User: What shape does this take?
Amino acid sequence: MAEILDGKAVSQKIKENLKKEVLELNKNGIFPKLAVIMVGNDPSSKIYVRNKSIACMEVGIEYEEHLLNDNTTMDELLELIKKLNHDDTVSGILLQSPIPKGLDINEAFKTIDPKKDVDGFNPCNVGKLCLGQDSLISCTPYGIIKLLEEYGIEIEGKDAVVVGRSNIVGKPMMQCLLNKNATVTICHSKTIKLERATKKADILVVAVGKPKFITKDMVKEGAIVIDVGINRGEDGKICGDVDFDGVSEVASYITPVPGGVGPMTVAMLMNNIVKASKMGQKVL
Ligand code: NDP
Assistant: This one.
């Protein structure tokens, strides 16, 4: 049976260390603050934003929320982002996705000051990640790397397979694994014979958004399986993209959903806010 990669426990440890760091920063007059922008009323977004606000409270990070209605124009959204870019009390800006159709999320990400881009979605930070330069790294892939490292799992030289190529998870995940010297394959909806690729993975990262999509027969014996998916199953319960019960029988390590990648993502957001606050004060 696979060992559980306990993202909840590891994220707690990361947050406790950050809390100490924030207290030290406070002594030096630095008060990290997150500004969240949410456009519209997406129910899942409300839950994610609430989790992020709770984490800020735990770590001692100041928090403010900007709730915009569905009819917000692109000009209004960009104006708010620019205002927050110039607000010296704001260390990090997070635009919660999705935003209503008709608004251009890429334009919005591009407008966030790269030094305040705690989600790591600004093209400048994406480019730096590709070049292997220090940057604010997208929280989900960064959290996955930290989780593997925490369990002493070697990435270098491994065959890593990422299923999903979204800009927010799959592509930065591929880059993070490559930067750690894995040999990376990335799969998507046009991949032919997906199981041929997944079966050769030493490390399999799944970010598809389909409940229990990866089954036991698609996984190599002893593989390390990372489940990014957050879905509501037929029974109404939250489940991942991996059939946890079946895949646990063949994998050596596996992340649960909930309690795996999700809490790590939030912890790395906290990490990025603290880092951004230091960059803003030229401590970094
Ligand atoms: P997207 O919908 O943006 O991307 C899904 C990806 O899966 C696409 O690249 C798509 O391919 C690929 N895909 C779809 N069907 C198949 C298939 N049959 N075979 C192979 N690949 C396929 O999703 P996200 O990346 O935003 O999110 C993925 C999941 O992760 C969701 O459940 C989301 O809720 C969750 N998530 C969890 C986070 C966390 O913190 N735990 C953070 C962010 C997301 P193509 O590009 O060809 O369309």
